[in-house]
From TrEMBL:
One of its GO terms (biological process) is nucleotide metabolic process. It comes from the Bacteria. A motif (Histidine triad motif) lies at residues 97-101. PROSITE patterns: HIT_2. Keywords: Hydrolase. The active site is at residue 99. Transmembrane segments: none annotated. Residues 9-113 form the HIT domain. It comes from Sphaerisporangium rubeum. This is Diadenosine tetraphosphate (Ap4A) HIT family hydrolase. GO terms for molecular function: hydrolase activity. SUPFAM superfamilies: HIT-like. It holds the Pfam family HIT.
Length: 147
């Protein structure tokens, strides 16, 4: 496994030099408790390789990242925390480690994602959809349009 020498906290976790509450790990991923949690049970599913943005992940590791985060979410619903819901957020910071936050949610928590977004014109949304569809088609098989 490649490690960064720049004090990357995820590299320190992966190498065992950082104190962490480890849930699970394998050769490609690690699941740890967030040390600054939004709520009790806030968990990180982290790609072990430094510099691994979402763009760098092969389909197999990308699928494992999602499936592991989903398994963590299911575990949060079954463990003693008894959360009411789960939110997930993908962090895709170039030069770091792709990772997913898994946030347990409780009826009385005060965690909010607050954005005051303006409605976008349909012609702009349609143009952006076309651009994205073309880019996605250059990555793999052309996607059918349904609906």
């Amino acid at each position: 496994m490649e490690h960064s020498g720049d004090g990357c906290v995820f590299c320190e976790v992966a190498s065992g030099t950082a104190e962490v509450s480890l849930v699970w790990q394998d050769d490609g991923l690690m699941v740890v408790m967030d040390s600054h949690p939004v709520n009790p049970g806030h968990t990180l599913v982290v790609v072990r390789r430094h510099g691994s943005s979402l763009e760098d992940l092969d389909d197999q590791l990308g699928a494992r990242l999602w499936c592991t985060a989903r398994r963590v979410a299911r575990g949060l619903r079954r463990c003693g925390l008894r959360c009411d819901a789960v939110n997930m957020l993908l962090e895709d910071v170039e030069g770091s480690h792709a990772h997913m936050h898994v946030f347990p949610r409780f009826a009385d928590d005060d965690f909010v994602i607050d954005a005051d977004c303006e409605p976008r014109e349909r012609r702009l949304l349609d143009r952006e959809a076309w651009l994205l569809r073309e880019a996605m088609s250059s990555i793999g098989p052309r996607l059918p349009i349904r609906g």
